[in-house]
Each structure stands twice: as structure tokens, then as C-alpha cells.
Predict the 3D structure of the following.
Amino acid sequence: MAASRKPTLAVWKFASCDGCQLTLLDCEDELLAIAGGVEVAHFLEASSATVAGPYDLSLVEGSITTPGDLERIRRVRAQSTTLVAIGACATAGGIQALRNYADVDDYLSVVYAHPEYIETLATSTAIADHVTVDLELRGCPISKGQLLDVIGAYLHGRRPDLSTASVCLECKQRGNVCVAVAGGTPCLGPITQAGCGALCPSYLRGCYGCFGPVEGANVAGLVDDLHRQGLTDPDIVRMLRTFNGYADAFREASLALGGTPVTITASPERAS
Amino acid sequence: MSDPAPPPAIPDERTLRVEALARVEGEGAMYVRTSGGRVAEVELQIYEPPRFFEAFLRGRSYTEPPDITARICGICPVAYQMSACLAIEDACGVTLDGPLADLRRLLYCGEWIESHVLHIYLLHAPDFLGYPSALALARDQADAVQQGLDLKKTGNDLVDLIGGRAVHPVNVRVGGFYRVPTRRELAPMREALLVARDQAEAMIRWVAGFDIPDFERDYVFVALRDPDRYAVVGGELGSSAGWSAPIAEFDDHVHEEHVARSNALRAHLSDGGPYLVGPLARYSLNSAQLSEGAQAAAADAGLGPTCRNPFQSIVVRSVETLHAIDEALAIIERYDEPDVAAVEVVPRAGVGHGATEAPRGLLYHRYDLDDQGLVLDARIVPPTSQNQAAIEDDLAGFVDRHLDLDDETLTLRCEQAIRNYDPCISCATHFLDLTIEDDDGAGPGATDRRPPGRRGR
């Protein structure tokens, strides 16, 4: 193969909603230019033509939830020079990681009449728990701007420009009035990584943690504030346990608050 | 060339297999087996891993399902948010009207535009034109594809403006919104929608010119109906079989069944028959309520008042796109900022039902709340699990009539027939891991498309 060939891009899906890979198709102004700069070698949502690996850049969406996917992610890693995990499912197990706090057999019986038909792992875990990940792109969903920056950085051999500050910094940059201090709205902004552009406070809503815990997050300090705002422990546990609910800092803080707010009883009504 | 070989004999036993369907949302496979010149077995297999939404919704607050269930599907999060809001508000005895209800429809119009146009240009049109992807199509028809992308962007921009972002909007809440747009903020959208209107009309002409297989089916249609408008957010259940019912009676009409080999629960009507939801059902039941412009464009595109050819769904989707643009324009025209961004919703013990028309079809939610507003039980019936039986019936009917085609052509046509439904397998998976029949017969090309590690035991 000629040295000047275009780098190959592959997009892989594990347990997820498809929203992060859709973000690539949502780059309406850039998509055809991207397709000009890379060879889209494997992207099932967009193309029925696939090219065998190895791949220069793999974007991996979704979390690992089945024995089969555990094997598949290793194969994807082996075929990929650079592997970028995209989105909260891939970086923290996603909303489906709520099963990690429960008994998956109970979950099975709630949803399915015949749990014996289903093959699933007891946990939903991040890609980096199983293979080496070169870069993680946070968010539920990821930010289009960050995705374009990562692809651009890869093509030009530079480091991607990803903020590691908290949502609070982005909020100040936008000139928002603080929804927590001025409005008394519970907000995870101080402990959540930037990337969304402080979207929720801009819509007069408290941040709900789509980009996961910021490095060095003072979660205990925020929990004190939330208590002062009148939230109960179960309220705070629910706030912490959403799309990034199994990310280390959110998990530890929610466990420290004790109890599991999710009680599951088998549902008799779903007969086949 | 001068001495053509006789056509190869069609074998008695044939197997058509697609291990990983492309240009659909989520992970599915197709399996068709013929025997003695007839279809013996057809399966749309859903192996997308289960995510257990209905289980972990238990114990969550009544305020949370709109954000949580949005994560079932990145393509139609607004549909999940809207059905969830309606069901919870129903449980709490609240109904929205006026500008707040209008804003919900406006947001939903944005999702219809972006989802329909995504499917038309990026997922489905390549089938009709013989390309593996829109990216490949763009090498020959760059202007057409870019126009589609521009139109899709207008839909996304509308979701973005009202909802805060195109995927998993942040601005939706039970009772309304966190912040409502001003008239002034909506004004630029009007200009963009007027451009989109022309693009949609061009799109309708483009898809109407495709070579569409002649394939009529005898469906039972089910869609929402609303005396005042082409129903999208709420209304009543209506069927081409002649019945109608309040959404609260969904369970009396639809049963879900858990069958082996598929990770989705499969829905059928209480009489045991399959039915169809989605663009064809909506159009056939409600086409007289489309905007004038959409009705005229439908007639020009050769559609009658009903449509029973699933391969024409691409035309119906394009007509619905124009309708969504017209409805969005009308809403923006009459919009007055409401006094409050949300009405108060006080939780109470009870059961609530909600249904809306996701781009792919009827999406039903039901929540059982306790007196603190915690979810005791949740039920979600997405469109693709309702359509699974109809998809398989289409495949069987299509293959039966086209056994003269060679395996490759017939397989491509079958994939196209599945994509007629814009199936959203991420949604349909209720959330399972399927065991695919163990077979090493796939050739080297097929091996690349096979998701590793999903073999049978």
C-alpha cells in the first residue's frame, strides 16, 4: 500500500444508544470533507461497505455488557493503531451501568418473560476496563466540536484540545448567572468535566453530569451543599447515578451516601 | 460475451444471511431460508445487548424518565422525552396546552426533519441508487447529498434551539421546559425553514423518481389520530381495522411476547395478528390532515390517500418532512412566549400512559408512580418491536415473489426491505443477547461484517 494512502477510520458500537456515532453524521457541514480526508473503512451505521483491518483510527461507542462483546473489544483493539473511546457508555459504562448496583437477575426478570434466552454480563463497564484506550472523549452525548477536534488533531498529528476544567469555568465564560448560588438549583457543575459549553445552566437548569466527574472533583463538598439545599441522601444518590454513575468519583460518593435507592421486585405481569 | 452461459439453476435450498445489518440504528441480523421454492424461515434477529431501562427506572423520581429514556435512542431522544412526559403528566392529572404544547410539537418537528432526512439520504437512498453509502453516493452526486445534509441540519438546529442540543436535549422537563425561547430567538429559524421547504420539495421529487419495487401489502395500520391535526404528540389510538381507543387502553390492544433468538420483545394485536406503525400507517390513516403543500407534493409524487407499498416509505417520509416544516413554520408564526416555562406537576400515586409518533412509529410509555413520585413500574413499547412481525412478513412475501433473483441481489433487496422501516434496533432491544445459529459458511467479506464473539453455542 502506498505511503500516501488516506488513514482508515473505523467506528464500532457496543451497548449504547447510537447517539455518539450519530454525532459524526451530525457534522453536516464537515462530513463530506472528513470523508475526503480519511477512508471510512468500517462504519456500519453509515455504510454497508467494509474494509478489513487493521485500522488507523477506531472510534468506539458503547459499554461492555456481554461475554461476546468482551471478546470483540479485544479484537477491535488488536486491529486498531489508535483507539478513542467516545461517550459516557464507553468511558464509564453509561446509564446501563446502573445494573452494577443491582442484581442483574432481578433486572432480567423485570424486562423479560424468559430470562434464560438472554446472555448478559452482571456489569456494564467502560472500554478502558478491558483494553488500552488512547483517548477518552466524555459526554452523553459527546460534543460535536470535540469530536471534530480529535479527528482533526489525529489527521494533523497534534494533540487534541480537550478542557479538563469543570463546567463552572465554561459557565463563567458564557457569562451565566450561577443557577446554584443565585437560583438555589441543585447543580453538578462544580464536579463535572467541561465539554458541553455549560449547556444546562444556559437553559436555567442545573448541570446533571453528562461529561462525568472532573479530575480532582470535590464531591464531598458539593454533597454538603446539596444537603444544605434540602436534598436527601437518596436524592443525591440519584443525581450522581445517571449516565456516568459508575465513574469512580460519582460511584464512591454515591456509595458513601449509603443504600441503593433502586429496589427491584420481579414483575409477574409480563407473561409471554 | 457472444455465447452467454445459461442462467445458473436456482437451488431448492437457499439461505440468505446478513450477519450485521448496515445503515440501521443498532445491531441486527437477517436470516432467510427457502426450501422447495418457498420461504421456510425468516428472521430479523436482534442481538443488540439488553440495557434494562424498564428495570432501572424503578425507584427513580417522576422527574427523571424524560432524561433517562432519551438515552434509549440517540436518533429519536425527543420521542422518548415526549412520551415519558405525557405519561407522567397523565399519572399526575396534568395536560399541557397553548404555547407549551406548541413548543413540544415544534421540538418534535425538528426531530422528524433530522431523523427522516438522515434515513432518506444517508441510510436508504443508497439502496435505490446502488451505492453502499451516502459517502460513496456523494462522489457522484455531491450536490444532492450536501443538500440532504443541509436539510438535516435545519432539523437539528431546531432541536438544538428549543432543546439545547440535537442529541439528548437538556431543556425538556415534566410540565414543559426549563427555559422557553423568545419570539425573537425563533425568528431566524423561520428563514432557515423556508429554505428547508424548497429543499424538501426537491427531495420529494428526487425520491419519487427512484425505481421503486411494486410490492403492495395488506397491513393493519396503527397510528395516533387527532381530530385537529396530523397526530404526533398525543391523540387516540386508531387502526385501519376500524377500532380506535384511548392511549390508556394500549394494553388491551397490543401484547408483547418474548421469543427466543431475538433481544426485543415482539408486539402483536390482541387478536394475534401483526400490525404496522410508522410513516405508512400515519399517512394511510391521516393523510387528509397533512399540510396543503405536503398533500399536493404527495399527489405529484404519485401517492394516493393511502400507501401499502413499504418501498414507498421513503416517499412518505419525504412528504412527512415537508409537513413537519410547514407545521414548524405555522407554530413559529403564531408563537407567543408563555408566562411560565413549565406548569407545576405535583406527584401522586397512580398510573399514567403516554404515546407519541416517533419518526419510526408509535412509542408508548406507561409509568406507575407512588405517592412520593417514585417509579414503581415502567413499560416502554418502541416502534421497531411493534414492526418486527411486519418486517418479517414483508421479507417472506418479497422473497417468495423474487426467487428468480440471484442470492446477492435478493439479499440486497431484503436489506432494503428491512431499511424500509428505518428500524431502530437500539430502541427495540428491550432492552437481549441473541444466539446466532452457528454457521461458518459466511465468506471472507461477510466475516468482516460479522460481529465477532456472537456465535452460537
Chain A touches chain B through 80 residues (CB under 8 Å). The two ends of chain A are 55 Å apart (CA to CA).
